[in-house]
Amino acid sequence: NYAEALTAVEAIQYNPKKTDGSLSIRIQNQKAKIYAQQNQFDKTQELYSNSLQNQRASGAAAPSSAPVQQSTQEAKEDIASVLKDRGKLDEEMNLRRQEIEFNLEANNLTEVTRDKVAISNTFAEKGEIPEALKEAAEAASIADTIDNPQAQANAYLALADLYAKNNRANQALSTYKKYS
């Protein structure tokens, strides 16, 4: 029951003056997820944007804030999933673009790569192949700059699959080779 969950989250007692703000950010993320499930996307967007802004203000991109980063990534994925399930594909991509901007500031390029691949997949689902290819190519390019073989493999695989599905066999083969 989402109403009960929201009540429980709102009942959490904490003193913002005695904490670093991470609990407040995590509460905002939880509330945003609940509102998304209730199709209250304006409240969802407001809370999620506030969460990102509070992270910027509190320096939550620091390594010590791993629980906050995980909470935000989980909230983003849950909200994006709800938006996609409800056919709100443009809103889902906008949410991911907002997260990309935040993660570029925080130099979290693995998450940027992941979101660009997801945006590429959404463009492909909408039939907007040139945009899908552009996002996938950018994801692969970013993935090449980081030491994360999984992110790199996912980006190249997404790009290669797009080439293959769009009758660009030579480019697909070349990209599959980079992937392997």
Secondary-structure content class: mainly alpha
How big a fraction of the residues is strand?
under 5%
What best-fitting shape do the alpha-carbon axes yield?
elongated
Query: How would you sum up the major sheet?
Result: none
Helix-strand sequence: HHHHHHHHH
Uncertain runs are none
Record the SSE blueprint.
Layout: H1 2-10, H2 22-37, H3 41-58, H4 66-85, H5 89-105, H6 109-126, H7 129-143, H8 149-165, H9 169-179
Overview of this structure, please?
It contains nine helices and no strands. The protein is mainly α and 180 residues long. The N and C termini lie far apart (45 Å). α1 packs antiparallel against α2 and α3 runs antiparallel to α4.
Summarize the entry for a quick read.
With 180 residues, the chain is an all-alpha fold. It has helices spanning 2-10, 22-37, 41-58, 66-85, 89-105, 109-126, 129-143, 149-165, 169-179. The chain is elongated, with a radius of gyration of 18 Å.
Identify the notable features of this structure and list them briefly.
180 residues, mainly alpha, 0% strand
